[in-house]
Design goal:
The complex is a heterodimer. By secondary structure, chain A is of the alpha+beta class. Chain A is built from 4 helices and 13 strands. Helices cover about 20% and strands about 30% of the residues of chain A. By secondary structure, chain B is mostly beta strands. Chain B has 2 domains: about 150 residues, no CATH class; about 110 residues, Cyclophilin-like (Cyclophilin), CATH 2.40.100. In chain B, the strands form 4 sheets. Chain B has a 7-stranded mixed barrel with strand order 12-19-16-17-14-13-20. A 6-stranded antiparallel sheet of chain B has the order 7-6-9-4-1-11, with no helix packed on it. Chain B is elongated, with a radius of gyration of 20 Å. The termini of chain B are far apart. Classes of the chains: A alpha+beta, B mainly beta. At the A-B interface, strand 1, strand 2, strand 3, strand 4 and helix 2 of A face strand 15 and strand 19 of B. Chain A: Keywords: ATP-binding, Hydrolase, Nucleotide-binding.
């Protein structure tokens, strides 16, 4: 664990693995320390933001003492299930590029249990790992100016759902009605780093 | 009409409702947002006896015109926009008693970018995730203010104002921004670290509440590997591959993909909220609180 400075009210904690970012975020969440305002896991780091500069050194010292190997990173319970209509704009192109049929693309997308690596790009947008290597394709050469809300998409070794309409360069396999981000819901985002996710064909 | 409200007659360049933002949602992809110059917002609220975080208008480059629908107290802080009430010049950084029906107009500030117009009782627009701030990146919070909007005003507190005049804003040709080593200081050459504090940078035309791009001596990296995305704070000085730094503002993306060489102090971050295109600035080295 390496603690890097990030201004007067935050530190960026660098760890060795993605699983450790989830373990650290879980441990800090469980601590319910009122001095900590935000804990933001990413690929190899966790940003810890405190309320005032006076608390930073003490919180950083506490982070240093956490034993990440002792923390259960994956949340208990069932994975989040997301029902998908596989009628995406790029489904046929993905089938052609991978040498699979459209049905095989859907089968390979619904087979794995995915992990939310981290949230970024937009509110509620989770980067999910665990995509079948047969479906690894680069982003579109030119991003679309607008991808519809609920689009289920793939790019490189990840899959994701667009919570709201936004520009985007991922390949669209389908669409879900699931609310990925809703300011009136508690919590507002369906996904959180470290969660497990399964996609299902909508019935 | 006795309704407590302000009617927007002209919205100016860009006028937004801002408070002190929505902390606690960054892990869900939502930045804190809030006033770009928090210090100026807080001073305006203290002049009026409001809570520090009461919502106010953040007016970029002036041009706002408002009509009071009831007798209200206003305070203007931040960028010093020449202000009139019914055509009469009003003093800056002071409380203005504005009678129902009176019109307040802001000209273009001589210094800085953002003027805060606070009202006793605060703006009572609906909150989203606990905040009335507009986040221009995520689209959360109220829509930008437009002519014709009627902004509800909350009930004024009976608290005494905790100050009776705001500080004079800084002035001078060059902004000095205090900065401390950022999380990826070690990804840059010693020369880049020296250059950052030795040379002047200029604010380009590319800037908003998400970030402000600078132009000046390029900052070279000692590590050229790709940085996995990591969370950043407002005030981070990020360096894309062209070596030209940018300063993240309150509506920054939660994560960034380029290394952060330095991070502004909290007060320098507020000062950066007053940078306008063409402004010249220098970074000044500040010792980090955590080694």
């Amino acid at each position: 664990m390496l603690i890097r400075p990030s201004g007067e009210r935050a530190v960026l904690v660098e760890v060795d693995t993605l699983a450790q970012t989830h373990a650290l975020a879980t441990a800090l969440g469980a601590a319910s320390d009122p001095r900590i305002l935000d804990v933001v896991p990413a690929a190899r780091t966790v940003l810890v933001v405190v309320d005032t500069t006076a608390h930073l050194a003490d919180v950083a010292a506490r982070v240093r003492t956490l034993d990440l190997t002792a923390v259960e990173a994956a949340p208990a319970g069932d994975p989040v299930r997301i029902a998908v209509d596989y009628d995406g704009t790029d489904l046929a192109d993905v089938a052609e590029a991978t040498g699979l049929t459209e049905a095989e693309v859907v089968a390979r997308h619904t087979a794995p249990e995915y992990i939310v690596d981290f949230i970024g790009f937009a509110p509620g947008f989770g980067y999910l790992s665990g995509l079948d290597p047969a479906l690894h394709l680069p982003r579109l050469p030119t991003p679309r100016p607008s991808v519809p809300a609920g689009s289920v998409a793939i790019a490189a070794d990840r899959t994701a759902v667009y919570p709201r309409a936004s520009p985007g360069g991922w390949r669209l396999l389908g669409r879900t009605d699931a609310a990925l981000f809703d300011v009136t819901a508690e919590p507002p985002a369906l996904l959180r780093a470290g969660m497990r996710v399964r996609f299902e064909v909508a019935g | 009409m006795s309704e407590r409200a302000l009617t927007v007659l002209e919205a100016g360049g860009l006028t937004l409702v801002e408070d002190l933002g929505r902390p606690g949602f960054a892990a869900l992809g939502v930045s804190r947002s809030g006033a770009a110059d928090r210090g100026a917002l807080i001073v305006a609220n203290r002049l009026l006896g409001n809570e520090d975080g009461a919502a106010a208008l953040e007016v970029a480059m002036g041009g706002l015109a408002l009509r009071a629908e009831s007798d209200v107290l206003l305070a203007l802080t931040g960028a010093s926009a020449p202000t009139t009430v019914d055509g009469r010049t009003a003093p800056p950084q002071r409380v203005l008693a504005v009678a129902a029906g009176s019109v307040v107009r802001l000209g273009v500030p001589r210094w800085g970018l953002r003027t805060y117009v606070a009202v006793a009782g605060g703006l009572a627009v609906p909150a989203v995730l606990g905040s009335r701030s507009t986040d221009v990146l995520s689209g959360l919070g109220p829509a930008p203010v437009r002519a014709g909007d009627v902004l509800p005003v909350g009930r004024a507190s009976i608290a005494m104002a905790t100050i009776d005049a705001g500080p004079a804003p800084p002035s001078g040709p060059t902004f000095m921004l205090d900065a401390m080593p950022g999380p990826r200081r070690d990804w840059f050459t010693e020369e880049a670290w020296r250059v950052l504090f030795a040379r002047r940078y200029r604010v380009t035309d590319v800037g908003d509440r998400v970030g402000v791009r600078l132009r000046g001596a390029p900052l070279g990296r000692s590590r050229l590997t790709e940085l996995p995305s990591e969370a950043v704070v407002a005030g981070s000085v990020q360096v894309p591959p062209d070596g030209q730094p940018l300063i993240f503002g309150p509506d920054h993306p939660v994560t960034g993909g380029y290394p952060v060489i330095a991070v502004l102090t909290e007060s320098a971050r507020d000062a950066a909220g007053q940078l306008r295109p063409g402004q010249e600035l220098r970074f000044r080295h500040h010792v980090s609180p955590v080694a």
